[in-house]
Structure formats: structure tokens, C-alpha cells
Amino acid sequence: MPDLNPEHLKAVINAINDGPFFVHMSMKVTEIGVGFSIVVIEIERKHMNPFGGLHGGVYAAAIDTAAYWSAYCDLPEENGLVTIDLKVDFLAPVLDEKIIIYGQRIKSGKTIYLTEAKMCDKDEKLLAHGTSKLMVTHNKQSINDVVDYIGSSKLPQKYLRR
Amino acid sequence: MPDLNPEHLKAVINAINDGPFFVHMSMKVTEIGVGFSIVVIEIERKHMNPFGGLHGGVYAAAIDTAAYWSAYCDLPEENGLVTIDLKVDFLAPVLDEKIIIYGQRIKSGKTIYLTEAKMCDKDEKLLAHGTSKLMVTHNKQSINDVVDYIGSSKLPQKYLRR
Amino acid sequence: MPDLNPEHLKAVINAINDGPFFVHMSMKVTEIGVGFSIVVIEIERKHMNPFGGLHGGVYAAAIDTAAYWSAYCDLPEENGLVTIDLKVDFLAPVLDEKIIIYGQRIKSGKTIYLTEAKMCDKDEKLLAHGTSKLMVTHNKQSINDVVDYIGSSKLPQKYLRR
Amino acid sequence: MPDLNPEHLKAVINAINDGPFFVHMSMKVTEIGVGFSIVVIEIERKHMNPFGGLHGGVYAAAIDTAAYWSAYCDLPEENGLVTIDLKVDFLAPVLDEKIIIYGQRIKSGKTIYLTEAKMCDKDEKLLAHGTSKLMVTHNKQSINDVVDYIGSSKLPQKYLRR
Questions:
Q1: Distance from the D112 Cα atom to the nearest Cα atom in chain B, whole angstroms
Q2: Residue D78 phi, psi (nearest 5)
Q3: What is the torsion angle, in degrees rounded to the nearest 10, for the CA atoms of residue B89, residue C89, residue B36 and residue C34?
Q4: Judged by CB atoms within 8 Å, which residues 54-73 of C form the interface with D?
Q5: CB D5 within 8 Å of CB D158
Q6: Which among D55, D56, D64 is the nearest to C56, CB-wise?
Q7: What pTM value is reported for the model?
Q8: What does the angle CA D78 – CA C56 – CA D27 come to, to the nearest 5 degrees?
Q9: Mapping DSSP to helix (H, G, I), strand (E, B) and coil, where does residue B57 land?
Q10: What is the pLDDT of residue C1?
């Protein structure tokens, strides 16, 4: 595989963090690398279910996001990637004001990618675990759609020529 | 099983729809009955991922919610119910401005409940399918916690004496 | 969709029931129709885990099989179908000597099919529930591979000309 | 946690490998330790689906087994453990005559354990990935049931006094 362009990844992180749902959820991708990603959410009252705990949808949104971006570096520049499923196991209530989600790619196949993510509190206590499968596409949900939708400037190329 | 009190269900729906994440997501439970529930989300720009499609976390939050409340009528008044897992299969992109999610209880065991939910557009096209397991608790996440957290008035009793 | 040829389905059922693992497990597909299938296993001591209960792998094998064949009628004759995932929720121990598994197709997309299956005892008590996703292929695991592997006679065509 | 008794683990491995389904499937647990287990299957024609590939039920049985026993060392001697769900992602066809499955415990809670397992060929190529949840019981499926069912001699105690 050719080398990834760090300028591309920086620009992608900036662009996706401007995505409406990311902003709405106070959710940020802080790192994307080969086979991993890191997502952070600052917990506020708006994330709470009627019982006063973190809504399951927040766990799921965070795990979906970290799982997705953990696979991005494996994807050829011209292809897209869509999520086909998501599974979340809820392991402990969230008591801190911040959660960190570590996405990891388990396998990148030709068509299907399998990823996982672990949600932790700031003391690395495991709060939830998830897996997600993605499908490589030829014309749907490529990174250029982010540029178009967010209106960010053209991205630097993904891979460096050697 | 004794008869459910419709006044109780009405009050529960009102209270949970005041939950912070429900309001934040423009998500409403519109019906709760024995073995089912209905959830509605009005889609706005805030729900969009950076590609311009509905974020997977919105699908997941809606399915989690519909699945959860489909089981509520089976739960003895003094018990609580926590979600232990959620699985979502994403089947089609959302193109309408409104999604309706039909929750259904598959089985209520002594300790574990299995539920499912189907997300549809207004023409009943299936957009996503999910399953979720819940665990009956003796002291966690009972409906009284909603009253305490939301600050709603005391709920009418759940079951009618005969 | 053109009409299915009942002679084709009969021949397919006969051929797959000669598959080595089917025979080994005393597992039989008894029906395949549009959007559904039925699988039956006669429980013997060989299916038992070391605790004396039905091994989880038997539940899983039966659900995988019923889910798979529920989708078969939707598949164009020239394509193949491979299972990409399987999820099983275990709901009750098996006490009878026979289990019946009802497969049902939830959605047939262009590339991905979602199916489910319910395992019941002879009184229709629900013992387990599962979902499974399949991927349509262009050159892998088509029904002709069954003819080749099992050595059955050529299958009647799948669809009837009108 | 007190120290595990290696004699107990050896005796457990011997006893469960005499379980009917283990023998029927040519499946053996070769190791059980704190947070992990290893399972091996020698692939034969009997494991094949009608297409000539390894039946999904074999993948599932192996992953279910490795996931289950990875959690055994965390379980207090007097308790039992039942599987409540199993998810398998199928990643590659099996071409070797032997598969090795590595079970790993992700989290042991008070009531629910989450485990995972990776199925590999002899070159450590990942063929399938799974997760499974188990529930701690107070009177069901304890290790003494294995002694009763298999008819093995009384097991050495699980933990060493210090």
C-alpha cells in the first residue's frame, strides 16, 4: 500500500467534524490512522435519556462513528464506504463527563470490512463494545461527497506518490 | 396479567418525550401498547452525517428507543429495565423528511426480554431493522426514575385493579 | 418475478438434504417457498453439550440453515448467495426431541439479503431467534455447485417461462 | 482472585471433550486459562455444506465454544454460566483441514460476561470473528452438571487455598 498523506487525514478530520450530526452531538473524531480511529464526546444533559442516564443512541452513534473511520485508511481513494450493520453491547453506565471511543479495523476484505470499537471513560474503564460491517462501493458515499456536502476546500490527495 | 391503565401509558409517553435526548433529536414516542411501540423522528439537517445522509447513530437511536418501549407493558410495575445490546441492519438510505419506527417485543422472559424494531418511511418502505435485548432489574432504571429526573407529576398506577 | 418451478424446489430440497453436514446433524430442509423455509432437527444425544443441554452450535446451525434457504427463491438463477453473518439469541432450553425452525426473508436488496429464523418446539414455543445477512455473488456458491458437489442429477430450471 | 488450580482445568478440559457434540464434531478444547481458551476442529467431509464449503453451523459451533470457555476462569465455583447470544461474522472460506479458534473474554460483569473469538487457519489467517454474551446463574449449568452428565470423576477444586 502506498503511504498515506497526513495532510489528507488532517483535512478529512476537519471536514467531518463540521458534519451537522457531529456538531449536534458534540462528537469529534480526534484521530484517524491505518486501522484505527479515536472519537470523543463531551457528555451534556442533552445526551440523557428520560431516566437520567446516557441514551443508548449516544453510545451507538459514537461506536458507529469510531468503527467507520477506523477503516478509512484501507479504502482506495476512488471508492466509497457504507455501513451495513452495527452491534453494540452495553457494559456499564457512563458516569464521567467525557467518553473516548477507540475504533479498530478487524479485517478489510475486497467488498466487506469488519470493524470494532471500545467506548471507555477517562480511566480506560470499558463502558461499551461494538462491531460494525461496512461495504465498499464504487459510486456511493466517497470522501468527495463530504467536500460537496460540507463545502470544505478540495482535499489533498490521499496517498503519496513515491 | 392485570389490565394496563391507559392513563399511566399516556403519562409515561408525555414524560419520556420530555427527556433531553428525545427533545434534542426531535424524536417522539407516539404509542406504547402491549408488545409494541411507535417512534417518530422528523428529519432535519442536524441529523446528517458529513456525506449528507442520515447518520447511522440516528437510525440506531430510533431503533433502540422503539425496541425498548415495546417491552414496557410486560414489565412488573416495581421492576426496571436496562438495555444490554442493540443490533441494527441498515437496509436503505432515508430520503423522506420523516421516519416511523415500529417496535415489537419478541419474547419476555423472566430476566431477559428480546425486542425488534423496523424503521420505515411514510410509504412503509423498510429502511432498517434491529433487535435489542433488555434485562429486568430490581433497583435500576424503573419508571419512577423518569418522574424524578424529568420532574413530571406522579404517574397514575400502571395496572388497574379488577 | 417469473413463477418458480415447484419441480426445481423439490429437487433442490432433495439435493441439499444429502449434504454431508445436513446428514451428520440429522437436519432436514422440509420446505422452501418465496420468502420462507422450514428446517427440522430430530434431537439425539450426539447434539448435547457437556452439561446435557442442546449445544449452542446446533441452535446456530439450524438457524443459519433456515435463514439461508428462506432467501433462495428471490435469487436470480445465475447468481450465488453466501452468508456474511449470523446472530442467534438463545431464549429457552430445548426439552423436546424435535425442533422446527422457520426461516423468513426480511428484505432482498440488490447485493445484501436480510433474513431471520425462529426456532420452536412442537408446541410452537419460541426457543431461539436469529438473523442472518447474505450477499449475492456472481460466481460463488450458486446452486450448480450443489449439483457438482452432491453429484445429484441436473436440476429442472428455477423459473417457469410464461 | 484466588489462584486457579491447574489440575481442575485439566480435568475440565478432559471432561468437556467427552461431551457428545464435541466428539460428534471432532471439536476439542485444547486450553483454558484466565480470559482465554483455544478450540481446534479437524475438518472432514462431514462438516461440509451442500456447496462443498464448511457449513456456517461449524463456524458458529466452534466460535460459541471458544467464547464460552474463555470466560470460565472468571466464574465463581458455585455459579453456572449460560450463553444468551452469539454473533458470527464470516470473513473467508476455510481451505485447510484444521481450524483453530481463539476465545477471549472482553468483560466479566456481575451478571453478564462479554466474550469474543477469532477463527484462524494454521497460518493465522482470520476466517471468522464472533462475539457472545453469557449470563451468570445461581443454579443452572454449573460445572458439576458436566460431572453428572459425562460421568467423569469428581473434579479437583477450582481455586487453590492460600
A1: 9
A2: -85, -10
A3: 60
A4: 55-58, 60-62, 64-65, 68
A5: yes
A6: D64
A7: 0.97
A8: 95
A9: helix
A10: 67
